[in-house]
Amino acid sequence: MLWFPEMGPRYEQQTPGLADALNANKAKFADNKDMLTDVTELKDMYDSGIMGKNALSDAYADATKAIASGKVAMVVAPTSFAQALNHDYPNMKIDDIGVFLMPLDDNQTMNINPAGPTHFIYSGSQHVAEAKQYLDFLAQPENLQFFIDNSPDVVSLPFPGLKTKFTPDVQALFDTYKNARGTVFQTAVNYVNPQWMDIGKDLTAMFTGDEQPADVLTNIDKRRADLAATAKDPAWN
Predict the structure, then answer these.
(1) Which range marks the domain in which residue 57 is found?
(2) Number of domains the chain is built from
(3) Quick check: is 90 in a domain?
(4) What residues contact residue 28 under an 8 Å CB cut-off, 6+ apart?
(5) What is the pLDDT of residues 30-48, one digit of tens each?
């Protein structure tokens, strides 16, 4: 799933203002040549065996095990993957893991999702005041830093003044592409994230030959229109 919307910065680079145009219903996924290139190359990766023989049954929960076993060379993962791998398999050192950009569509942009672990309070709760106190406790700088320092899956949080624990390779990636980065489309474009599982089903159908790459994009547009209609989005009226 990640191979498609995470490439949003590349689509935006090739068509400046694309995210805004999509949100204003002035552009469609099906009309974008870079999106078509992305899913077509993704299909080529699958067909050529790059994803392995069991791509449709491999579980992301087993990613650290697969890398540690030596049977898998690469994995799509967050910037915390090296720490998670070292946590699960201490013999695997953090500097054993390098990083590179997702390469589809000749990509030379870095994908950023400007979010972090999120907590919500149910508006109908009988304990809203206490829940707010708890959120305030979690948001104290020393507690945020403790979370970063003691979690193998968290290397930064979107709060100022905190010390991150990016690996040297990840930091080098950030430094190299500091002027070529952007927001992933499941965050930047309306009505994409809610159909996450449906897009995954379309990509699976593409891999198995039941759909063509263009069908994936057309289906995304159709679902966006349905979601926009439900939301009474004026751009779709």
Answers:
(1) 5-115+164-236
(2) 1
(3) yes
(4) 22, 217, 221
(5) 999 999 999 999 999 999 9
